[in-house]
């Protein structure tokens, strides 16, 4: 029974990794760009949500806000920052100093955004973890001895719906066709009439939404936020993305769930200190056996999503 409980916990934890891994996959698969600000966007939603629910809007504009409204504003903040990153990485730095094959400039500039935002949050709110005031009621279901937290169950359902909606959007909508054209060849997409200056921000908006939503759900599920909360989640989401297959949405789903399963089972059998060894060891083994990941069939930037 205890092992079954850990399996359920694995799926719940894996759903958080899935959401962030899909965000990484979007930027890798479409823009061929490893966006280092993704862990920061995850953290920002949780910290902004906590600050608004504890202090309210700055300068005395309001008192503490309800936690749900605070998290909604936190998600909007993550989307806004993601669009700012797009404005000063792809649209400006890349077009001014790089070409369509240049990846170093946006990668390094996104790392700069990560450090700036993270340190601003640390200066503003300190480095210690904060308790998030989530739902007051007992939100635990007892399913034949298996305990399931309702917020975690809701998070899992939301994650599944987001992935399904994203897949349908990529297949059937005009924006999705434009995104897939850019993923195949951005220069050819431009020649064919795809307006990359309008389509690329959509990737960053989706990235901010996914990370913000994951950060908000994490705050509700675990009742705690901190300026460092994005680091561990971000690195494990990257591991999940690579295990599943670079640039594949379903690969990110599979990889995120695998990392959640590995983490919970490692904690159960060997203790928390060995989690990083097992997760990153598994990543290396997968890369040796399947260089493109479990569901990857193409090289980066070619015919995915």
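Sequence proposed for the structure above (305 residues):
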């Amino acid at each position: 029974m205890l092992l079954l409980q850990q399996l359920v916990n694995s799926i719940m934890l894996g759903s958080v990794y899935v959401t962030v891994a899909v965000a990484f996959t979007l930027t890798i698969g479409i823009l061929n760009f490893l966006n280092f600000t993704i862990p920061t966007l995850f953290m920002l939603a949780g910290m902004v949500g906590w600050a608004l629910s504890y202090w309210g809007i700055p300068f005395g504009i309001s008192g503490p806000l309800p936690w749900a409204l605070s998290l909604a504003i936190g998600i909007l903040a993550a989307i806004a920052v993601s669009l700012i990153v797009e404005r000063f990485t792809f649209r400006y730095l890349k077009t001014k100093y790089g070409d369509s094959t240049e990846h170093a400039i946006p990668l390094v500039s996104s790392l700069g955004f990560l450090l700036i935002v993270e340190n601003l949050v640390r200066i503003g709110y300190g480095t210690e973890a904060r308790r998030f005031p989530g739902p007051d009621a007992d939100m635990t279901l007892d399913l034949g001895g298996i305990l399931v937290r309702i917020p975690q169950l809701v998070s899992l359902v939301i994650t599944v719906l987001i992935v399904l909606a994203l897949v349908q959007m990529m297949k059937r909508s005009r924006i999705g066709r434009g995104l897939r054209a850019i993923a195949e060849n951005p220069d050819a997409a431009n020649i064919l009439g795809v307006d990359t200056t309008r389509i690329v921000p959509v990737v960053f908006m989706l990235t901010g939404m996914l990370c913000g939503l994951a950060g908000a759900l994490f705050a509700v599920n675990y009742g705690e936020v901190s300026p460092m909360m994005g680091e561990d989640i971000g690195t494990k989401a990257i591991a999940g993305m690579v295990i599943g297959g670079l640039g594949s949405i379903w690969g990110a789903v599979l990889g995120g769930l695998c990392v959640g399963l590995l983490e919970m089972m490692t904690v159960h059998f060997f203790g928390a200190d060995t989690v990083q060894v097992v997760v990153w060891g598994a990543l290396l083994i997968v890369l040796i056996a399947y260089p493109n990941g479990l569901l990857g069939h193409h090289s980066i930037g070619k015919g995915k999503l």
